[in-house]
Specification:
This protein is α+β, with helices and mostly antiparallel strands and 386 residues long. The protein has a single domain (2-385), classed as 4-Layer Sandwich (Chorismate synthase, AroC fold), CATH 3.60.150.10. 32% of the residues lie in helices and 20% in strands. It has a five-stranded antiparallel β-sheet. The protein has a four-stranded antiparallel β-sheet with strand order 1-2-6-3, with helices on one face. The protein is globular.
């Protein structure tokens, strides 16, 4: 499977074309819209979430509730487009070239690097595409992947482990409990003591014109043994998951399982002992490896964490340099959030879901879900008696 996205933050729409989804997959538009709504929630979100109500349109590849095997096209319209038609028009509009032009790059953004790379004197041509608004359509794509995974009993959940200086106590719970409890939390956190502290810190940052980052964790349960591969670097699933997480706007770090903590432990406290029983076959006594060894899944839950830096758009902007005059100025201010970590947790779930679904299709290549379901069932039976 593969996909491409297109569209700008203030353009008419965001679009994705997905190729390689097997035919006859039960397909729910409501399930995609549910994920889009989850992305728009969270304490610390800005005014745009009140303007936009993201909903997907499926314009190809699905008929009467089932995929056809053809490319799937998803569209999410930007409802704020009516206020930006002149500024973002594909056709020349007299007087619009200088309106909302950006000549002062914002520290922490793609503005200056992109302007130099693409020879753009108006950095709006960079910031519109590099905006985290693009994650909307990736969440929609991830929602399609979730539907494929659900057919095999594979579920995806996420939680926030840290916002700013407030660190939550990590809790090992079932995937069902993780999904239910985080959905009730304004910051998608399981720790009820940390939750109000996070919200207070977000409010303070907003009052100060500042922003906060944090750490999110994604767990995938029900994954079979052997997704990914050890034979080539670009087929290692842990590497692909790390790349997917790092591709999310503002993410600056990733770890799998206990991650960096392994550096301070002896091997006896890092590796997971192997067990076997007649009912379920092989398992592990612990899951410090995060469900991945040698670039392949172990059958344990896949656990991936990502670090999101504070959003670089500040209402008390940092200093920058005007590209026209080379004089020092306060950086431009675009509408932004004080903290998007809870929303980023949903985005992280989406990109992880996509990589797991992609790995499933590589391990069990099939043109139709009928064949794929049979192949997965036979493989699971094989791994239990191995």
């Amino acid at each position: 499977m593969r996909y491409l996205t297109a569209g700008e933050s203030h353009g008419p729409q965001l679009t994705a074309i997905i190729e390689g989804v097997p035919s006859n997959l039960p397909f729910s538009v409501d399930a995609i819209n549910e994920q889009l709504a989850r992305r728009q929630k969270g304490h610390g979100r800005g005014r745009r979430m009140q303007i936009e109500k993201d909903e997907v349109k499926v314009v190809s590849g699905v008929r009467h509730g089932y995929t056809t095997g053809a490319p799937i096209t998803l569209v999410v319209e930007n409802r704020d487009w009516t206020h930006w038609q002149g500024i973002m028009s594909a056709e020349p509009v007299e007087g619009a070239e200088e309106k909302r032009r950006v000549s002062r790059p914002r520290p922490g953004h793609a503005d200056l690097n992109g302007a130099i790379k693409y020879h753009q004197r108006d950095m709006r041509n960079i910031l519109e595409r590099s905006s985290a608004r693009e994650t909307t359509i990736r969440v929609a794509v991830g929602a399609v992947a979730r539907q494929l995974l659900a057919a095999f009993g594979i579920r995806v959940g996420g939680q926030v482990l840290q916002i700013g200086e407030v660190v939550a106590q990590r809790q090992d719970v079932s995937i069902e409990e993780l999904i239910a409890r985080t959905e009730e939390s304004p910051v998608r956190c399981l720790d009820k003591e940390a939750e109000p502290k996070m919200m207070t810190l977000i409010d303070k940052a907003k009052e100060d014109g500042d922003s906060l980052g944090g750490i999110v964790e994604v767990m995938v349960d029900g994954v079979p043994i052997g997704l990914g591969s050890h034979v080539q670097w670009d087929r290692k699933l842990d590497g692909r998951l790390a790349q997917a997480m790092m591709s999310i706007q503002a993410f600056k770090g990733v770890e799998i399982g206990i991650g960096f903590e392994a550096a301070g432990r002896p091997g006896s406290q890092v590796h997971d002992e192997i067990t076997w029983n007649e009912q379920s076959g092989y398992s592990r006594k612990s899951n410090r490896a995060g469900g991945l060894e040698g670039g392949m899944t172990t059958g344990m839950p896949v656990v991936v964490r990502g670090v999101m830096k504070p959003i670089p758009t500040l209402y008390k902007p940092l200093m920058s340099v005007d590209i026209d005059t080379h004089e020092a100025f306060s950086a431009s201010v675009e509408r932004s959030d004080s903290c998007a970590v809870p929303a980023a947790s949903v985005v992280a779930e989406a990109v992880v879901a996509w990589e797991i679904a992609r790995a499933m299709c590589e391990k069990f290549p099939s043109d139709s879900m009928d064949d794929m379901l049979e192949n997965v069932s036979q493989y699971r039976a094989y791994t239990e008696r191995f």
